Amino acid sequence: MTSSGVSTAAAISPDSGEHWAAEGAWRVADGVWRIPLPLPMDGLKAVNVYVIETEEGITLVDGGWAIPVARELLERCLRDIGFGFTDLRRFLVTHVHRDHFTLATVLGHEFGAEVSLGIEEKPAIDLLHDAAHLTESPFVAVLRTAGALEVADQWVRMDGEHELPDAAIWAPPDVWLQGDQSIAVGTRTLDAVHTPGHTPGHYVFAEQDAGLLFAGDHVLPTITPSIGFTVPPDDLPLGRFLASLRRVTELPDLTLLPAHGPVAPSSHARAHELLAFHEARLSASLAAVAEGGSTADEVARRIGWTRHERDYAELDVFSQGMAAMETKAHLELLVVRGQATARDGDGGIVFAPVVG
């Protein structure tokens, strides 16, 4: 869901002067480079991997998706700035999603580079390694509780067309990050800050001396990170996400280095925009419940999606599922705030406004 006046598809990044996903190694600061890697068949187009130079070699923030085209481009771009895979010393992975973690773990284990990931991502890694015992995608159960029964059935059919996860690209990290901590990267110090919400174990890395925030998917400049799209399901993901955004505003105002989209000048400005967006979304969701929406799916059908405020029926089935799960996250937070109630129903969890 976009919440910025700038379209991701048209966004120019100041470091390159080109579209943010343009191929290349783009210098964002002294000793720091941004390399966009491709995401085939993904509307986001690319994921930004950040290279930090040190006297001992290079540290990468995120690694990309473990597919040949991404690996080949990363190798070529590193060569252009004087490095190779043998110079890899560490991966600081912001979260467990495949476009951030899988190439990091493959290259890390192949070339002896240390891979770090938040400890709260371990249940997801464990679930992927136990996928052979699953009778269906765990997202399907979430969709059913959201009342998106038709979408859930279509996800079951889509899931049947895919192979089981490749355990080799989901190997556990070498280091599990726990709590906030400072990490030495050569002569630099990066503050690893736990920012759950998009995923339970998401981290951002702040280099305060250089004025940089490696933000992963927590703070994106032109779109809002998905909320509620995690398995096993996280407890109150939107509440955790909003609290994590407020944590970003407690740090100094830093240059935003996002995983998707262009480099942006102010982490504070974007965090405040995202906070305001979700408050407006909460109000719209509550109004939709009052108008007769009862399940998350029914509420999702009453509010607009994407920056163009598209109708739910216009979305593809995958996006409809994402919309239903995100709406469920908003409604659950309204319940915690005492503005709505929830009860189990035959077609999913039923929400109602608190009257009086």
UniProtKB/TrEMBL annotation:
Metallo-beta-lactamase domain segment(s): 46-260
Highest rank taxon of the organism: Bacteria
Pfam families named among the record's database cross-references: Lactamase_B (PF00753)
Stated name of the protein: MBL fold metallo-hydrolase
Organism: Nocardioides nanhaiensis
Highest classification ranks of the organism: Bacteria, Bacillati, Actinomycetota, Actinomycetes, Propionibacteriales
